[in-house]
Amino acid sequence: MRIIDAADALGYRSNAVARALVQGRTALVGAIATDLANPYHSEVIGGIERAAGAHGLEVVIGHGQRDPRRITRWVDRMIELNVDGLIVVSSWAEPSALALAAAAAPVVVVGRMPQQARDVDSIVSDDVGGAAMAVRHLIERGHRRIAFVTSSDRPAAMARQLGYETAVAEADANVPHVVSLADDAARALAALLDGRERPTAVLANNDVTAVRVMDAALDRGIRVPDQLAVVGYDNTVMASLVRPTLTTVDQPNDEIGRLAMAMLAERFEGRRVERHVTISPALVVRGSSG
Amino acid sequence: MRIIDAADALGYRSNAVARALVQGRTALVGAIATDLANPYHSEVIGGIERAAGAHGLEVVIGHGQRDPRRITRWVDRMIELNVDGLIVVSSWAEPSALALAAAAAPVVVVGRMPQQARDVDSIVSDDVGGAAMAVRHLIERGHRRIAFVTSSDRPAAMARQLGYETAVAEADANVPHVVSLADDAARALAALLDGRERPTAVLANNDVTAVRVMDAALDRGIRVPDQLAVVGYDNTVMASLVRPTLTTVDQPNDEIGRLAMAMLAERFEGRRVERHVTISPALVVRGSSG
DNA sequence: CTGAAAGCGCTTACAG
DNA sequence: CTGAAAGCGCTTACAG
Lengths: 290, 290
Description:
homodimer; alpha/beta; four-stranded parallel beta sheet; 11 helices; 43% helix; 18% strand; DNA-binding
């Protein structure tokens, strides 16, 4: 007891680095996010953290800052830090780096990768289904000229586009009308909104894009939702802040984080086979779709 | 070379934990944030990261999740992880834990602490000056009945209230009228907006509070800014998303992050005396103040 | 210049 | 039950 008191008095703290070296485990889970400023990512990480507590694990976060190289470097760095498991909330990491990492510790990717990495588990949201659900909602409200506006050619956006195309095809509505804001956004928006055959509804690949469409419409005096219905994707905070509030597709981010942690735990318990889970999104109807 | 090739082929990676043990340094800076979902915190951390790169340091992030105990525990954990320096983007850590940490590695707190911790450097924004600047702006626009609405009694909010009180006093405007949303927000807003002596302008302790005031006003048919000017604080993304867009007080978050990293670097170079820096905010005038 | 030894701060298995 | 030794995977200082 006197020894312990003396240690406390001197401010002694056990060196976790040395402990990790001998125990071969750090009790650390690494979480890498494309962009922490994006609330979607911080919510997923919140879910990971809450679940990690139950396993006696701490979550250290690496911030990718929307830079693919930085994200891939974090994968390497986390393995060097000897994390016991790694959750990559990003589709931007190099598959080869992920496969290498998976040889050292269990790895779960949250997001739709361009290609699978060996021995890496994954969680994706059903983007095809979510986008189709949004389009069906617009069709139910009587819309027949529905455009898809996208700012990305990442796999998630492509899957949403596919869901859009599928749903307009099955409803015998318009021919698919896809507008990309990637190059000249102002011009693309002008072509979309100033033409004679203006759509009556727009599905956007995410909330940010949806808000850009809404702003462009309001600038032209086009009323939302009366003259143009707009639906976003991701249900970020901005969806309930803008006026009119934005109808959007929601994903259970907290739940996704918990699941990612649970999948790591299964690996700790000995699972050897890959596991790939698809999560179902849900439509949140607000003002922008009438 | 053949040995290196073989190591590569086997996927060998140097064990950073072992290296850290012998070198006595991890090349890691810990960054702890109250709430990563808050863009203010993720911007500061972005600034830290950009500056850390130049020093060959990596930034690991601990997420406080708005839980004071969790934040304090992260301070302990980061020291156990042997970070070379620690930046706490939060005012919620226990001063005693910070002082203990500072005995092991340089520590910089970004935020206004209720009390100073020994050997801990700090960066605060001039909240008194920022709030006074906002009030003077409203006075210039002719307002004489200006209220301060706050949702917090944390030191930053208190300093902003002080700045408000100082500025209304010097302008010979109204007597200070402070409204707290801490207990019964709906009732407090009703008292503020439904009374006969309704203010013509409101300064809020932050943007979230400002948006709540704006929404409450719009619900009552009170036009912003014509019948009620509203000014926020922090210049979060939501300030430019709401309609009317929000006049607010901006802090150079990226710059604050860089400075925090620079202050750590000074400690690495041998600085022994405490350093406390105050950053000047700036007013961003938008639609909500007319 | 090369190679083996000592040691970073712990935990664990073992001898006393 | 207590105490000393071995060893985790590296780096560094030193002997050859």
